[in-house]
Amino acid sequence: MVSVGNDLDQRVRADIAVLGGGTAGAVVAGRLIENTSLSVVVVEAGPDYGPFDAGRWPHELLDSSTLPQTHDWGYRGPGATPGHDLPLDRARVIGGCSSHNGCSQTVGHAADYRTWGPSWTDASLTESMRHAAARLRVRRDSDDDLTPFQAAAMEAMILCGVPRTDDLDDLFGGAGCGPSPVNNPDGVRWNSAFAYLDPVRDSLEPERSDRRLRVVDHALVERLELHGSVVRRAHVRRGQERLTVEAERFILCGGAYGSPEVLLRSGIGPADELTALGVAPRLDLPGVGRNLHDHPTLELRFAASEELARRLADYERGRPVPDEQVIGKALSAGGRAPYDLHLLPWTGKEPGGWTCVLPAACLTPRSRGTLRLTSPDPGARPLIDHAYLTDPDGSDLEVLRYGIDLCRRMAASPALAPLLGPPLDEFTAGWLNEFAKDPRDGLATDPSRGKPTGSREAAMRAAAAHYWHPVGTCAIGTDPAAGAVVDATGRLYGSDNLWVIDASIIPAIPRATTNLPVVALAEHLARTLL
Known about the structure:
It is a single chain. 24% of the residues lie in helices and 22% in strands. By secondary structure, it is of the alpha+beta class. The strands form 8 sheets. Strands 8, 17, 18, 19, 20, 21, 24 and 27 form an 8-stranded antiparallel β-sheet that branches. A 5-stranded mixed β-sheet has the order 1-2-13-12-11. Strands 10-4-3-14-28 form a 5-stranded parallel β-sheet, covered by helices on one side.
């Protein structure tokens, strides 16, 4: 039973507290309610709009044809050039980033998951992915459903040597391109709260005192209270209220940024850094906030030609024009087989007309960054630095160089060239013109640094962005002294009753859009909690 006290500082009690109702937290809570008789409280920093059928969800969070700009945490961090900050979008709402992503659902390659622990066999991974895809209602557009731009972009990939395939949901598939699996039944972005919480919500009797699931929304977890190796309670701020959450087990699901923030504020992390901030160290885990990484990207941006604008207008008369539909998997020269690049064309409708974007993402990044607190105050933003394109051998930059040159060749292909108007930024114009003659121009090696250098490198660094897939800040591993934060079950080292289950524990990012892998991770580890 979930109970709430009437004290000035209210107390919420349950058998299990899930701290964070995002992509992973909704999965963990739903699976625990379905498979046990335990009570579960979900503490979510953003709003909970209830079940899908209640009709209270904002339109922009449901509409899968574009990316919403609301419900963002407001994180920012440096790009690959000093002084150039990037928005690091994260969704502050039940369902987390599954409530505002692009709906493309890819799985990566089976080899990506073999460092996650001995229970991640090919068979168990396949099963978890299958369950996750079924719950998220993943489907695939046919070639006939593609927008004129997406169809032309896929044809351009094929003309540039990326074969046609239908294996974007195959853990053993290789390079290829095709319509992406998507989780948008009837155009609705089907988030993890719809998939896992709605089936266990007691929507008909929401005020029953004996219900086993409670969602406390607009509630920010400030810190965890440890007594030795045991977490006794979580201290939560809800508007002007202070809540304490008491449970036998705590599952932290705050994501790649939120989970390390909570741990660090609780005295769990590098002891010297915590002491310098005035936080009393409780567990010295040097890996908390380390190993942060994402898929770095570069993109070419064009206005739509008059011909494409006409075709998109024709398409739009019958249905919405989705931003994303097609993904290509490609292997860079000298890269990591079977593929190390995503090509993910998308369109956006601006006041001045349609924008056409050809991005390339490095799927095997070697650069690693950090998240550090600036203050124990939960309202203070942390320092988030992914250290994009800083790997010593320049591998990430070289993969992107190959990928963006592949995008350049796509743009010049007979399939796409008639549909693209003028370039929309200096990087695109430069790549099409001054850098087009020699694909290695400006990437000569500087022996003093062992990295590529030159005008091409400077342009790439200034234009580099990311794929919205941060992971790794509370990584799975076997040795806490070497940076591991949790064991293969997600249990925090040094604690008897605290687990972390979300993207933060992924030790090395898979070659995938990360929503489906995170849902599969939560599916898999929720079973170990049973």
